[in-house]
Amino acid sequence: MSSRIEQIIEEIEEYVDSCKYQPLSTTKIVVNKEEIEELLRELRLKTPDEIKRYQKIISSKDAILEDAQTKADAIIADAQAKAEELVSQHEVMQKAYAQANETINAANKQAQEILDSATQDANSIRLSAITYTDDMMANIGNVLQNTLDDAGAKYKVFLDALQSCLDVVNQNRQELAPQTAQAAAISNNLYGDEEDDDVLMDELSE
């Protein structure tokens, strides 16, 4: 069963795939800011809990080893008890000691095998948890980096559009400058009568 953080990453990937491309672009998409921010907000909230979960898995290594040690100690204690019983019951002490030593050696071997297996299992669990956590963080980092890159690209397009508009306005003002100066000169020479008004209108219309 996948974790919630994996589900959120899948939702982000599905959302990005569902977004429309910007006009004249095959790489840049248009995103809903509120929707992507909501997914990222939930991702930030879930990430600490998910990390704690894998830290708990890693810490279980000690519990596995402790349980294995307890079982090994119990096996050794039982073997020693049987060895003592054999020694006390057999009339031939040499045979009893041999059987006792064989039992103890077998118990020690079994206990060591249990400890080795438990250590290997604990290390495997720890390595898997660390690897998964690193992969998860890498996926989150890729999503965030792609989001930042897309936002930066859209911001640059916006600035370029504003600069283009400003250039057009400045160019138009430069083209109007001679006519503006001419209108100002004519305005300074006005006498206020109808004849001069007609002259002014004729000059302006030329």
From TrEMBL:
For whether the record's keyword set contains Coiled coil, the answer is: yes
UniProt keyword terms in alphabetical order: Coiled coil
Where along the sequence do coiled-coil regions lie? 76-121
Its recorded name reads ATPase
